[in-house]
Write a structure and sequence with these properties.
The complex is a heterodimer of chains A (324) and B (326). With 324 residues, chain A is an all-alpha fold. Chain A has a domain of 184 residues: MetI-like (MetI-like fold, Orthogonal Bundle), CATH 1.10.3720. Helix content of chain A is 74%, strand content 2%. Chain A contains 13 helices and 2 strands; from the N terminus they run αααααααββαααααα. Chain B has 11 helices and 12 strands. The longest helix of chain B has 18 residues. Chain B is globular, with a radius of gyration of 20 Å. The two termini of chain B are 30 Å apart. The chains are: A mainly alpha (324), B alpha/beta (326). At the A-B interface, helix 9 and helix 10 of A face helix 2 and helix 4 of B. The complex binds adenosine-5'-triphosphate, iron/sulfur cluster and magnesium ion. The site of adenosine-5'-triphosphate (ATP) has 16 residues of chain B, from strand 1, strand 2 and helix 1. The site of magnesium ion has 3 residues of chain B, from helix 1.
Amino acid sequence: MAVFILRRLSQSVVLVLVMSMLVFLGVFAIGDPINTLVAPDATEEERQAIVVHFGLDKPLYEQYGRFLGNALRGDLGRSFKFNEPALALIAQRVPATLELAFASLLLTVVLGIPLGLYAGFRPNARSSRLIMGVSAFGFSVPAFWLGLMMVMLFSVFLGWLPASGRGTTVAILGIPVSFLTWDGLKHMILPVINLAAFKLSLIIRLTRAGTQEVVMSDYVKYAKAKGLRNGRIVLVHVLKNTLIPITTVLGLEFGRTIAFAVVTETIFAWPGMGKLIIDSISVLDRPVIVAYLMLIVVMFIVINLVVDIIYSTLDPRMRLEDQR
Amino acid sequence: MSAGSNLSVEGLRTHFFTKAGVVKAVDDVSFSLAPGEVMGLVGESGSGKSVTGFSLLGLVDAPGKVVGGRILFKGQDLAAMSDEQRRRMRGSRMAAIFQDPLMTLNPVLRIETQMVETILAHQALPRAEARKRSIAALERVGIPAAEERLSAYPHQFSGGMRQRVCIAIALLNDPDLIIADEPTTALDVTIQAQILHEMRALCAGSGTSLIWITHDLSVVAGLADKICVMYAGRIVERGDVDEVLDRPLHPYTRGLIASLPSRSERGQALYQIPGMTPSLLGLGEGCAFRDRCPRADASCLDSPPERVVSEGRTCRCFHPHEGEPS
Ligand SMILES: Nc1ncnc2c1ncn2[C@@H]1O[C@H](COP(=O)(O)OP(=O)(O)OP(=O)(O)O)[C@@H](O)[C@H]1O
Ligand code: SF4
Ligand SMILES: [Mg+2]
């Protein structure tokens, strides 16, 4: 296991390096940030001073080298716009995004797996058909449309739920969170549902398909032939096997949720990373964009590693010790 | 049926109600088994052997249904039992072993889990006690280092060892009947013979009846006390194993015996019964074997009834061979 993790980490270093080049090149290609940095009435000298200050006059490889050198020291540059370290700027926004992401993941697991199991065991029941119909809807409807509709219905017409912001937050270990106050929770409901809709539908379908396959398997028939009670067959023999593919998908979906929280955060004015990155792109705040993208790369690497570890504990045939 | 019988099956019918029509997978099957007796259930693929076994276990899945007959197990009518009573029967009084242990053992659970749960499903015991019994069962079927192997997963055993694990699981609750559905087909011949031999000894020692399902007549020849030859959902011939093999009455049984490799001269092509197994879907009246039977005539357009030849010996044919040796 330790060998596996070490090897994986060394591969990750290479991956991060390659990604950093791509990200740097890509951001460079978006456009020249100079016009957004310089006031329109600035003189030519002032303009030059700013270009030199940010190193924008240097050739690309030199800019990249400088970026890499600084990055190794934990410095991903300063935001052009806020004149704050890019990393710190993002770090302030991370908790809000993570809070939404974890809440939607929790909702997905707690609701999606039981519903999928049920629909898998009783595929012909009317309630199963209803579950599948609703999940088909959640699967195909775009996030922004669903978000806007929910705002219209629950905030504008019914006035039940707030449509923007985090509400009242309290700090745990200095990190502000919404879920511990009633007001904060109310603010979370719509964005969490919006963020979970697709995942939830996906997990329901996946669990159902997995269950139907496992139920037909010889080992479930054998479990019945051993006289096991139904509860045990479902919770141990069926669930443990269906969880294997679900874990993988959940892991990847979790990464996607964080990376693509942009839409939901924009609709609900949720002050997370997604909103920051949209603002940064619109003013070509290069360091923030680069720092954000690098953070996402690292996050995906970590998630994949965690998924592999969970995967191997669930499926003994994939035990990491066995692999060379 | 005789008072000493463990299991007696009378006129069992299990049909599958598919969209394309009714499949009479088991159609009027009768036999009985005494304690400690070994019965071979032989027939080609699709003849209804497995469905017979599942019917006894009460595990026929939709669209299948037991539609007729009576199963008396230790004097009790299984049809009269509730689902819960039948569950308690399965895995304790009536155990099963299936063909491919790699498919039947759950790949993600330790052997220990899969053994202990089988005990705890039927009696309230401390876990440690159930574990001890599991180790004893593994030792009984000849698995070395049983205690260590308990924490292994199915994929960490060889094919033969895996099947021994399944046998150990079947023996855990001292059943009165074991239904073994082609349990050695996936194994190589020497291991097959070894396992058969051990199974027989284990069952004889405990008075457990054994139904050994196979498509290979030679497997049961040296092992079983009785034999049932199944064709298209029906038992076409049944009786003492030596009698049936030495003096087969039914043309199909004869064909099966003639096609055994040991019967043919060296270098001579193996005999094969002409034609193919008929589809059970919408099988009409008449003897299902008539398209392949050398003795068929117009009378075979009717279904031959099961005729009792002597005590425990039956045949379903209008023109049986009259006891000439095979
Ligand atoms: N779920 C099902 N739906 C429809 N028909 C079925 C179903 N299960 C079994 N049958 C039918 O029942 C018949 C008997 O099947 P069974 O599995 O008992 O054969 P078998 O003698 O065990 O053959 P094999 O040697 O291949 O295991 C087959 O012809 C098959 O078409
Ligand atoms: S009943 Fe007729 S067709 Fe059927 S086995 Fe006997 S002789 Fe052959
Ligand atoms: Mg079969």
